[in-house]
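User: I'm preparing a small set of examples for a lab meeting where we compare how different chains pack in three dimensions. I only have the primary sequence for this one, and I'd like the structure in token form so I can line it up with the others. Please keep the answer compact; I'll paste it straight into my notes.
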Amino acid sequence: MDTHKTQLTVLDQIADADKVRRKIIDAASALYVKKGFNATSIEEISEAAGVSLPVTYRYVKKKSEIMRMIMEDMLNSFRENLLMMIDGIDDPVEKLDIAARLYFKVVEQQRQKALLMYQKSNSLDKASRARIMELEVEVSKIFGEMIQEGIDSGAFKKVDVDLAAYNIIMTAHMWILKHWHFKKRLTLDTYIDLQLATIHKMFR
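Assistant: Understood. Below is the structure token output for the 204-residue chain.
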């Protein structure tokens, strides 16, 4: 990689925290996939990101913290887009469909990062693993609140809300974990449509 093309100025690194964070996350993800988690150093991540090492250390002191940042990034992307997409929508069925479809697509867009979370979660320190689990629970709560809203309004039958929420999450993850199989005959949109039909049956 030609780091001179991607090098941020010192002022950029100070003024644009979101941009720096994004560069660190993207560089780390690419290196983890290419070299492996254990073989990648923070120095290499810093160089690939075009961010000075002292600035990189302001964001992460150890590699496990970058895995936490990856999970936070996925959750924030889902949550921020969801709030815009369901604004003004009252129908709980439509709202849940929008949320599920968006989550499937965010997971697909971040496929390499999501796979890393599965592959390397056991390598993380206790605090980072705990934080990643907290973030996953936050996603389930988003779906859980929508499911409960549907039950309260009479649009959905009574179900175990937590289990139903996690069923949606794991169905999205199945697309990336078993993509080698499903890609042979399904597009992502077809997969989502088929899974949404199954999800609807769970609530009717």
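A couple of notes for your slides: The longest helix spans residues 126-153. The chain has two domains: 3-61, 64-203.

User: Perfect, thanks.
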